Amino acid sequence: MNNLDEYNFIQKYIKQILTDNQMKIEVNNSKGILSSTIAFIGSLGLKSSTA
Questions:
Q1: Where along the chain do its domains lie?
Q2: Which residue did the predictor score with more confidence, 33 or 11?
Q3: Which residues contact 10 (CB under 8 A, 6 or more apart)?
Q4: What is the rounded end-to-end Cα distance, in angstroms, of the chain?
Q5: What are φ and ψ of residue 49, in 5° steps?
């Protein structure tokens, strides 16, 4: 499973748990956690993009 697939899987998984409105609330309430998670996933993608 490459990192893009993993990222898409995580996005789908999150969307299954949260409706769009709940997602907006989550983003507003926990920007730090969400952006750290996205940054972490992004950094994994950058680190292994040459693999």
A1: 3-48
A2: 11
A3: 41
A4: 13
A5: -70, -25
